[in-house]
Amino acid sequence: MPTPVNKPLKIILGVTGGIAAYKIPMLLRLLKKADADVQVIMTPSAERFVTPETLSVLSEKQVLCDFFDPATGMWNNHVDLGLWADAILIAPATATTIGKMVHGIADNLLLATHLSARCPVIIAPAMDLDMYAHESVTENLKTLESRGVHIIPAEDGPLASGLSGPGRLPEPETLFAEFMKIMNPELPLKGKNIMVSAGPTFEPIDPVRFIGNHSSGKMGYAIADAFAKEGANVTLVSGPVSLQTPKNVSRIDVQTAEEMREACLKESTNVDIIVMAAAVADYKVETRAQLKIKKEEDLTLSLVKNPDILQELGKAKTPSQTLIGFALETNNGYDYAKDKVVRKNLDFIVLNSLADEGAGFGHDTNKVCLFDKTGSEKAYPLMSKKMVADIIVKQAISYHFSGNFADI
Fold first, then answer.
1. Contact status, residue 354 vs residue 332, Cβ threshold 8 Å
2. DSSP label at 279?
3. Average pLDDT, the chain
4. What is the CA angle 113-116-121, rounded to 5?
5. What is the DSSP-derived secondary structure letter of residue 63?
6. Which helix (H) or strand (E) holds 172?
7. Dihedral angle at the C-alpha atoms of 374, 380, 384, 385, nearest 10 degrees?
8. Helix, strand, coil percent values for the chain (each to nearest 5)
9. Which of helix, strand or coil describes residue 179?
């Protein structure tokens, strides 16, 4: 859920002529959900990519495109607009608009308003990778940054040209989070260190086979991302997954439970909140074969227990740390979760069950119930893993600072 601002922000949302403008209606919806008062100003070329009518309906205001209203001839006063705004957010910001901002060119209403503004200005560049890497663009961005303009960097990914690389406009949720971080610099976890584990562990049988599980890592990665958006310094200890590292998150890759244990124990000594969302394999083979085992006869494996990383972290936990575990169960989940939260010295545990349709491994959704060491619980319906991550992070913040669940 979007984080509400302290008071309704008056935002000028500037839209320029790039294909990434198709993402702006969703960004506008997120801003409106946060109770912002949004005035959209479009450059003439932006109208080729998204219609003023769409943005007008979403903003609940007439979209401004010209210095003069073509229907009435009334002047759209760029000076008044610049003084009205608490912030100007330009997304996407094309190479042309960036260049004109540097040189003080005011040949459209958005650029003239920018020159009249006394508020923070935030831009989100978006263009093809060679344009984004061009010296003229990089120098222009440095110049704007030196003048106090905040820049939300472009991301690496597929581009409209068919190429792939840096230059992609971040997704609306990321743009919203980065904008809110700039406008609310005192985020609750600023300066706090967080460790999150995610994904499975693979325990080798021989050089080509392993014991593992179906964990995709999606839940842990969403939690790491949500923590970073609250201003935290996040370290993600990740088993083998096919996921991109969230923005502003440091990632440590591991394969086995022993490697995860070593990394987690090392990183945990200097963190404030720990969330162990990884699905660590409970067992490993007693003796790993050095050569590939041939398929000649029936095979019997002797398994031994892996270390209980969560229990070790619980024993080492300091009074200032908050430790959160996960329990994925197929039956008697409530009983197992309530036992584990006490036995492993957790602050609270997140229970999800493979018996719930749409929850557990591989899905983009999850259904969870939170239990703390006092017996309090919070149950939530099936929702996206991103929304679940936001809830877990908000409850982690509440627990870390107050020792209780928040009423969410």
1. no
2. B
3. 90
4. 75
5. P
6. helix 172-183
7. 10
8. 35, 25, 40
9. helix
State phi, psi for 329 to the nearest 5 degrees. Answer: -125, 160
The answer to whether the beta carbons of residues 112 and 65 sit under 8 Å apart is no
What CATH number should be reported for the domain whose range is 193-292+300-402?
Answer: 3.40.50.10300
Whether 213 is catalytic: yes
Cβ-contact 271, 232 below 8 angstroms: no
Token readout for 355 is 């018996």
Q: What is the pLDDT of residue 231?
A: 87
Q: What are the Cα distances from residue 307, in Å, to 35, 82, 282?
A: 48, 60, 8
Please, which residues have CB within 8 angstroms of residue 244's CB and are 6 or more apart in sequence? none
The H or E element spanning position 15 is strand 10-15
Distance CA 194, CA 274 (A): 6
Which segments of the chain belong to CATH 3.40.50.1950?
10-183
Are the CB atoms for 342 and 311 separated by under 8 Å? no
Active-site annotation holder among 76, 184, 213, 248 = 213
CB-count burial class (<10 Å; 0-12, 13-18, 19+) for 102: middle
- Rounded to whole angstroms, the Cα distance separating 135 from 139 reads 6
Q: What is the pLDDT of residues 18-53, one digit of tens each?
A: 999 999 999 999 999 888 999 999 999 999 999 999
- What's the predicted TM-score (pTM) here? 0.60
Contact (Cβ atoms closer than 8 angstroms) between residue 55 and residue 63: yes
Which pLDDT value is given to residue 360? 60
ω before 92 within 30° of 0 (cis)?
Answer: yes
What residue spans in the chain does CATH classification 3.40.50.10300 cover?
193-292+300-402
Burial bucket for residue 267 (CB in 10 Å: 0-12, 13-18, 19+): buried
Measuring CA to CA, which residue among 47, 154, 49 is closest to residue 98?
A: 154
Burial of 329: CB neighbours in 10 Å, binned 0-12, 13-18, 19+? middle
**CA-to-CA distance for 284 and 320, rounded, in angstroms?**
34
- What average pLDDT does the segment 207-229 reach? 91
Q: Are 266 and 309 in contact (CB under 8 A)?
A: no
C-alpha 121/C-alpha 149 separation (Å) is 5
Pick the CATH number of 10-183 from 3.40.50.300, 3.40.50.1950, 3.30.420.40, 3.90.550.10: 3.40.50.1950
- β-pairing, 377-379 vs 369-372, is antiparallel
Decide if 177 contacts 247 (C-beta within 8 A).
Answer: no
